[in-house]
Here is the input.
Amino acid sequence: MISLMSQVATAIDDWSSKTTGILFPVSSYHRTIHYSMVAAAGLTALATYLVQRKVPAPYGKLRRRQLGVDSKQEKAWGPKIIPTTLGHTISDGPTGTFLFLYIFLKGAHYNYAANWTLAGLFMLHFFQRGFIHPFIMKYGDTHIRLGVWLGACGPNILFHVAIADWVANAVYPRNHLQKPLVMVGLVLYAVGFVVNRAADWQQAQWKKQLRQREDYAYPKGWLFNMVANPNYFGEFVEWTGYLLVSQAPICLMWSLFTAATWFTRAGFNLEFYRKKFSDNYPRHRRALVPFVY
Ligand SMILES: NC(=O)c1ccc[n+]([C@@H]2O[C@H](COP(=O)([O-])OP(=O)(O)OC[C@H]3O[C@@H](n4cnc5c(N)ncnc54)[C@H](OP(=O)(O)O)[C@@H]3O)[C@@H](O)[C@H]2O)c1
Here is the structure.
């Protein structure tokens, strides 16, 4: 079994390096572990899509009954015992920054520009997501369900470890960052990051102005006039850019995993707005990608 896994890992690695020109020169044992994580990541992305398209994780707008998440289904996610702000910090912050940096610095190729760029962009996102974002947002619910929190922690550990492992050990061509496709990726990452932050910030402002913290404002202005979830759209663009820069199998899985959440959840959020604001909510607005979905 282990020998078969090792052969599969070598075959995928050969294919990946021939296609991209990027090498992953680690021991056979290390490669087998890495690509086992890639396989687990792919299964996690698929499972996330299959579960979330039926029963979205019950937090935020989707913790209420009206969207097919009845209270029995909500309770199946376990007791509501995790403080929302602290929960977000623990699930995203330490693994995406400290653990990532630790693994990165133990790698063989951490001292090259492409590797540092990828590490820096990843840690920037998770420093923001774990240590800044939770303290800016005003969540409607003070606590989240244990299952929702574990559903964030588990995949985050897997992906953060596997991406750090790739970024620490991959050998990129010297001119990698000057390639046109990679530059497009860097621009997409930057644009996506700004859109994501701006949309989250806007939502936080609306929340502050509401009388009841449980309530939601009518979304309007710039991208909110086109899609229900500009913050998810921004993050989707951001990780698409990261994939173009890294060109790593594990980052393809990460893009698929995050997209599995955005595409399913955004559809339910759109449905939520249509119900809540009925005729006032324009029919042409999409869930996630302007004009498309
Ligand atoms: N990488 C990943 O896999 C992943 C997974 C999930 C989220 N994220 C990121 O985490 C961030 C937050 O995601 P989320 O799922 O919590 O997003 P969300 O549903 O958009 O909610 C974000 C915050 O804005 C508030 N809010 C949303 N719409 C509002 C409105 N119309 N009026 C007033 N307040 C409103 C919410 O209040 P309530 O608490 O009352 O709902 C919550 O505090 C996003 O940037 C997202 O991209 C990443």
User: Anything to note?
Assistant: The first helix runs from residue 2 to 20. DSSP finds nine helices and two strands in the chain. The mean pLDDT is 93.
